[in-house]
TrEMBL record:
GO cellular component: cytochrome o ubiquinol oxidase complex; plasma membrane
Top-level taxon of origin: Bacteria
Protein known as: Quinol oxidase subunit 4
Topology versus the membrane: Multi-pass membrane protein
Keywords: Cell membrane, Membrane, Transmembrane, Transmembrane helix
Stored InterPro entries: Cyt_c_oxidase_su4_prok, Cytochrome_c_oxidase_bac_sub4
The organism's taxonomic lineage, starting at the top: Bacteria, Bacillati, Bacillota, Bacilli, Bacillales
Major subcellular site: membrane
UniProt subcellular location: Cell membrane
């Protein structure tokens, strides 16, 4: 075997335990959010805050376990892309809330 093939196998083990852990964490976060929404054990506001917190955790799991966010050796282009994505998400969500609030004030 060549040196590059041996190094590639060292970097990527046969059993992808990191992907399995990320998948299980994603399932747990999803089912906790679903259970909270379906059980109606708390008022609407606290449930929405908890579900939003779980969504942020879900984003972190996706970034670190599946998208290998911190494993890059090169320039930090992924940080720039993530920043642009966050700005776009805030603009879309903020604009949607603003439009919905304006619509409720008109009627």
């Amino acid at each position: 075997m060549s040196q590059s093939h041996v190094k590639a196998n060292e970097k990527h083990p046969l059993f992808p335990i990191k992907n399995v852990i990320g998948f299980v964490l994603s399932l747990i976060l999803t089912f906790v959010a679903l259970g909270l929404g379906a059980a109606h054990i708390l008022p609407f506001g606290p449930i929405m805050l908890i579900i939003m917190g779980l969504a942020v955790l879900q984003i972190a799991v996706q970034l670190f376990f599946f998208m290998h966010f911190m494993e890059s050796d090169g320039p930090a282009y992924h940080v720039i892309g993530l920043t642009i994505g966050i700005i776009n998400a805030v603009a879309v969500i903020g604009g949607t809330i603003w439009v919905m609030t304006f619509n409720s004030q008109v009627h």
